[in-house]
Amino acid sequence: MFAHGDRLTRRDLELITDERRRYELVDGTLLVSPSPRPLHQRVVARLLAALTPLCPADCEVLPAPLDVVLDDHTVLIPDVVVGRRDTFTDRALVGVPVLAVEVVSPSSQHIDLYLKPARLAAAGCPFYWVIDPRVPSLSCFRLDGDTYVLAAEGHDDEAVTLTEPYALTLRPADLISPH
Predict the structure, then answer these.
(1) What's the distance, Cα to Cα, between the start and end of the chain in Å?
(2) Selection from 2, 20, 21 nearest residue 12 by Cα
(3) What residues contact residue 11 under an 8 Å CB cut-off, 6+ apart?
(4) pTM (2 decimals)?
(5) b/e code 89-119 from CB counts within 10 Å (16+ = b)
(6) What is the maximum span of the chain, computed from C-alpha positions, in angstroms?
(7) Which end of the chain has a smaller Cβ tally under 10 Å, C or N?
(8) Strand partners of residue 119
């Protein structure tokens, strides 16, 4: 489909028609992820339910799969993204999100903990959260200069209280609860 050694672009990504996997680009390199598992999707659903009522009118909270186009060679798909309404097109969020959230799975751990936050920090995304449902834990980072610093963290039933980008309290155990 693509010539060997070519640096892929956003346009190349749009040619892929397989909807069973997630396709992302980092610096022109294709990343392929399997469909998420039920626990992963439960965490996403619980987080959407918590964030959506607090979302300011000029922003929107959306789940994956939604392309976040940082540049022509970097297109990410965070598990949950908050973006300003004026950055959404009919196909993607084009530009820098306000918040990107990743739910870590064994197959995505390195990408979610190192690769994606590095690209999002370089683009200027002010907030990045990581949820590990296996612990469970929630780590909330804020951008400080060009790197993320830990702003809040909690495990199991520990409350994580935030003031930005929303005034909100979350418990990691609540995000994995089936009820």
Answers:
(1) 44
(2) 2
(3) none
(4) 0.89
(5) eeebbbbbbbbbbbbbbeebeebbeebbbeb
(6) 50
(7) C
(8) none
Q: Is 135 exposed, middle or buried (0-12, 13-18, 19+ CB in 10 A)?
A: middle
The residue with tokens 């619980």 is 46
Provide the token pair at 121: 């920090």
Please state the length of the chain. Answer: 179
pLDDT digits (tens, 9 = 90+) for 6-49: 788 888 888 887 777 778 888 888 888 877 899 999 999 999 99
Q: Which helix (H) or strand (E) holds 153?
A: strand 147-155
Read off the tokens for 153. Answer: 């963290």
Fill in the amino acid letter for 113: L
Sign of CA dihedral 84, 61, 159, 36: negative
CA distance 48 to 59: 13
